[in-house]
C-alpha cells in the first residue's frame, strides 16, 4: 500500500531522529471508528506516527463523541462512588456529564486534522529570516495520570520561500496538545508538522510546562518546570541560528 | 448548625457513611460507620483498613472505559498502566475524606498568653472542582486572633490539606477551614482568604487564562471590626 511504503521511507529517512515511542510500535491498533460503536474491535490502520502527522486520518468525529458520552459519564459515576462520594448530592448530580464533556474537550485534538487547519494559509513570500511566535499558552493532559499539563510553547522557523499564517502555528499547538500527551512527543509532533507543511530551512520548538502530576501529587514540587525542545534542519546544525532563536524567546 | 449542613454536603455515599459531628470537645470529627470500623473516636479511617473492599479495580475499569470512549488505544505502551495510575492519583487527590481534624489538631493546641494577630499566608492549596473534576489551585491565607489558645502553625496548613483534598467548591472550602479553626481554638476571630485559579475556566469553557477567584470567610472579630479585618488584609497583601 502506498501509505505503508511512504511510512517506511519516512522511517528510514529519519531513523536517527524519530524515537520509537508508545504511539507507533510497528503498526499500532486504533479502535475502528465505524458507524456502529464507540469501543469497537481494534482494526489495524496505519498508526498516526510522528512523521505522518501531515497526512493523518481523523480518529474521532462529533458523532463518536455523542455516542461515547453516556459510557464515559457512567464511568465517572463509578469513579465518584469509588472515591466515597455521594453522586446524588446536589453538587455532584450532573458532574459525570460535565466531567465527560470536559474530558472530551481536553482531547479534542483527536478530532482535528492538520491538513484542515493549514491547507489555505501557506503563502509564498520571499522571506528568509527567522519567524518566531512565542508564549503560546498550551494545555494538555498527562497520558500517565490524566492530570493537566500547562505551559508555554515557543516556535521559530526559517522559511524557505513559504510562510505560514501566524495563528496557524497556535492551531497546530492546539491540535497536538489537546490529547493525552507526553511533553517530549508533543514537542516533536509540533516541529514535524511544521516541517512537513512548509519544508522550511529549519524549525525550533521549545515547550516549558508545569506538570500537575508532579505538583499536586507524587513528589509535590510546586515550582518545578519541564523544558523540552526540538530543533530540526538548520536549527540543529547551526549553533548560531539556535542561539539566536533561544535568545529571542528569552527576551 | 450551619457547619453541620456544609459538612453533610461533603458527606460520603452508600458504602461508607461518614458524617461530621460536633463532639463534646467542641470540634468536629469525621467518623466512618462501616462494617470494619465501629469506633467513634480519634482513629483515622485509613484506606488500609478497608483494603478488602478496595475500590481500586472499579476505578481502574472506569478509567479504561473513559480512555476507550475518548478514542484512545488502551494497548499502547504509554497508556498500559494509566488506569491504575489515574485511579491512584484520584484517590490521592481526594484523600481528605479519610482524614480527621481530631487527629491533626489534638496535640498541638497550646496555652499562650498571646492576643495579637497570627497569620500564616501563602499556603499552596490544590483541590478538585466538584463540577468538572478538574483541578483548581491557589494560595490560602489564614489569620486568627487567639484567645489564650494557639495552635501549631503547620496544623493550619494541615487543616487546609484535609479540606482541600476533596471534591470541592471554593466557597465551601473557605468556610470549612474557618469553621474548623473556630471550633478547635475558640479564638476571638478567624479570617481565611483563598485566591485560586480554576482550570475549568482556564483550560475549557470561557478559557480566561489569567482569571482568579478570591473568596473569604471572616468570623468573630474579623467580621465585626473593620480595623481588624483591614490589618489582616494589609498583612496578607504585602509582599505576595
TrEMBL record, chain A:
A single GO molecular function term of this UniProt record: GTP binding
GO cellular component: cytoplasm; nucleus
Biased composition (Basic and acidic residues): 53-63
GO biological process: tetrahydrobiopterin biosynthetic process; tetrahydrofolate biosynthetic process
HAMAP family associated with the record: FolE
Membership in a protein family: Belongs to the GTP cyclohydrolase I family.
Protein name (record): GTP cyclohydrolase 1
Gene: LOC113060775
TrEMBL record, chain B:
Listed SUPFAM superfamilies: Tetrahydrobiopterin biosynthesis enzymes-like (SSF55620)
UniProt pathway annotation: Cofactor biosynthesis; 7,8-dihydroneopterin triphosphate biosynthesis; 7,8-dihydroneopterin triphosphate from GTP: step 1/1
Keyword rRNA-binding: no
Record GO biological process: tetrahydrobiopterin biosynthetic process; tetrahydrofolate biosynthetic process
A GO term for molecular function: zinc ion binding
Keywords: GTP-binding, Hydrolase, Nucleotide-binding, Tetrahydrobiopterin biosynthesis
A Pfam family of this chain: GTP_cyclohydroI
Enzyme nomenclature, EC number: 3.5.4.16
GO cellular component: cytoplasm
Catalytic activity line of the entry: GTP + H2O = 7,8-dihydroneopterin 3'-triphosphate + formate + H(+)
Enzyme class: hydrolase
Domain GTP cyclohydrolase I span(s) in chain numbering: 60-236
NCBIfam families, alphabetized: folE (TIGR00063), PRK09347.1-2 (NF006825), PRK09347.1-3 (NF006826)
Similarity remark: Belongs to the GTP cyclohydrolase I family.
Name of the molecule in the record: GTP cyclohydrolase 1
Species for this entry: Carassius auratus
Gene name for this UniProt entry: LOC113111822
Amino acid at each position: 500500500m502506498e501509505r505503508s511504503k511512504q511510512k517506511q521511507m519516512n522511517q528510514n529517512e529519519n531513523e536517527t531522529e524519530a524515537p520509537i515511542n508508545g504511539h507507533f510500535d510497528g503498526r499500532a491498533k486504533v479502535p475502528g471508528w465505524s458507524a456502529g460503536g464507540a469501543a469497537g474491535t481494534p482494526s489495524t490502520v496505519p498508526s498516526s506516527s510522528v512523521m505522518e502527522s501531515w497526512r493523518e486520518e481523523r480518529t474521532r468525529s462529533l458523532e463518536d463523541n455523542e455516542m461515547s458520552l453516556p459510557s464515559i459519564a457512567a464511568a465517572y459515576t463509578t469513579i465518584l462512588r469509588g472515591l466515597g462520594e455521594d453522586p446524588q448530592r446536589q453538587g455532584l448530580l450532573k458532574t459525570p456529564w460535565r466531567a465527560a464533556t470536559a474530558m472530551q474537550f481536553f482531547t479534542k485534538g483527536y478530532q482535528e486534522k492538520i491538513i484542515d487547519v493549514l491547507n489555505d494559509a501557506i503563502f509564498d513570500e520571499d522571506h528568509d529570516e527567522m519567524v518566531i511566535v512565542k508564549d503560546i499558552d498550551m494545555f494538555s493532559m498527562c497520558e500517565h495520570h490524566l492530570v493537566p499539563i500547562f505551559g508555554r510553547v515557543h516556535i521559530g522557523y526559517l522559511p524557505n520561500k513559504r510562510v505560514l499564517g501566524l495563528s496557524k502555528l497556535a492551531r497546530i499547538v492546539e491540535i497536538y496538545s489537546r490529547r493525552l500527551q507526553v511533553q517530549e512527543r508533543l514537542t516533536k509532533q509540533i516541529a514535524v508538522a511544521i516541517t512537513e507543511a512548509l519544508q522550511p530551512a529549519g524549525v525550533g520548538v521549545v515547550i516549558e510546562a508545569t506538570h500537575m502530576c508532579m505538583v499536586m501529587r507524587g513528589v509535590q514540587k510546586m515550582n518545578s518546570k519541564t523544558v523540552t525542545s526540538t530543533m530540526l534542519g538548520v536549527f540543529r546544525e547551526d549553533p548560531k541560528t539556535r542561539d539566536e532563536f533561544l535568545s529571542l524567546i528569552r527576551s | 448548625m450551619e457547619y453541620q449542613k456544609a459538612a453533610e454536603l461533603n458527606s460520603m455515599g452508600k458504602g461508607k457513611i461518614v458524617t461530621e459531628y460536633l463532639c463534646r470537645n467542641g470540634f468536629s470529627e469525621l467518623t466512618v460507620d462501616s462494617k470494619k470500623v465501629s469506633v467513634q473516636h480519634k482513629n483515622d479511617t485509613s484506606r488500609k483498613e478497608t483494603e478488602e473492599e478496595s475500590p481500586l479495580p472499579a476505578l481502574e475499569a472506569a478509567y479504561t472505559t473513559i480512555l476507550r470512549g475518548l478514542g484512545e488505544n488502551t494497548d499502547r505502551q504509554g497508556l498500559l498502566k494509566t488506569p491504575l495510575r489515574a485511579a491512584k492519583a484520584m484517590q490521592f487527590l481526594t484523600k481528605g475524606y479519610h482524614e480527621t481534624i481530631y487527629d491533626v489538631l489534638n496535640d498541638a493546641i497550646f496555652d499562650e498568653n498571646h492576643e495579637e494577630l497570627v497569620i500564616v499566608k501563602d499556603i499552596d492549596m490544590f483541590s478538585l472542582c466538584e463540577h468538572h473534576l478538574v483541578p483548581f489551585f491557589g494560595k490560602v491565607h489564614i489569620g486568627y486572633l487567639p484567645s489564650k489558645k494557639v495552635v501549631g502553625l503547620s496544623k493550619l496548613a494541615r487543616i487546609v490539606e484535609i479540606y482541600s483534598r476533596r471534591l470541592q467548591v471554593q466557597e465551601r472550602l473557605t468556610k470549612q477551614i474557618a469553621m474548623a479553626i473556630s471550633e478547635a481554638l475558640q479564638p476571638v476571630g478567624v479570617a481565611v482568604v483563598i485566591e485560586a485559579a480554576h482550570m475549568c475556566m482556564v483550560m475549557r469553557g470561557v478559557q480566561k487564562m489569567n482569571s482568579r477567584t478570591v473568596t473569604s470567610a471572616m468570623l468573630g472579630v474579623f467580621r465585626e471590626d473593620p480595623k481588624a479585618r483591614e490589618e489582616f488584609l494589609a498583612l496578607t497583601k504585602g509582599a505576595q
